[in-house]
Amino acid sequence: MSTTTKELVFAFLVLALTAGHASGQGYRGPYGFGSTPTREELAAFYSIPANGTGLPPGKGNYVQGQEVYTGKCVACHGDKMQGVAGAGEALIGGRGTLTSGKPLKTVESYWPYATTVFDYVKRAMPFNSPGSLTDDEVYAVTAYILVEAKIINKDAIINAKTLPKVEMPNRDGFVPDPRPDVHD
Fold it and tell me: Most buried of 19, 48, 158, 174 (most Cβ within 10 A)?
């Protein structure tokens, strides 16, 4: 065995032993990177599916949502949810535009599930402080948006039981992905 081959074999063994050592400690490497995430840390990455599994306790209505929207959303989305150039997209309007040359993708025209609205607002809004809204505030502002989009009635209470039952205008607008490899 040549010297170069011996050096390569030695380097391989060192790497293999180091990798085994690192994986035996929860991927902690020689630099101290990584740790096993806590249940609370993983919860931050959970998304709410269409059926509402995992929606938190709480509730909200139109009036409460209007207050939240006025205080935390209006600067980016406008007083009529029309959007603000350079700040935030429109949230309502655009029904029937998706097949046009100028589709307006909004909660009203594009989003297939109301639970997705809750999930997105909960994790990403307000833009300057994502994740800062309480669950009640998220339910309330979701109710406000859905009422303004004429999807639910003004007296509706939105919570973990009622939100998955909301029928969004574009609920049937998406086609299931037929590729078998994405379902395994």
Answer: 158
Per-residue pLDDT, averaged over 64-87, amounts to 97
How far is residue 70's CA from residue 9's CA, in Å, rounded to a whole number?
66
Which amino acid, one-letter code, is at 164? P
Mean pLDDT over 79-95 rounds to 96
- pLDDT score, position 8: 58
pLDDT tens per residue, range 53-63: 999 999 999 99
66 alpha-carbon distance from chain centroid: 22
One-letter identity of residue 79: D
Distance (Å, whole) CA 146 – CA 114: 8
The DSSP element (H or E) to which 59 belongs, if any, is strand 59-60
CA distance 76 to 129: 13
Concatenating the DSSP letter of every residue in 80-103 gives TS--BTTTB---S--TT-TTSSS-
Residue located via tokens 């009529």: 80
Q: Using alpha carbons, select from 99, 100, 146, 104 the residue that is nearest to residue 121.
A: 146
Torsion of CA 179, 166, 110, 149, to 10 degrees: 180
- 132-150 pLDDT, tens digit per residue, is 999 999 999 999 999 999 9
Where does the chain have alpha helices with state H? 3-23, 39-43, 62-72, 74-77, 114-124, 135-148
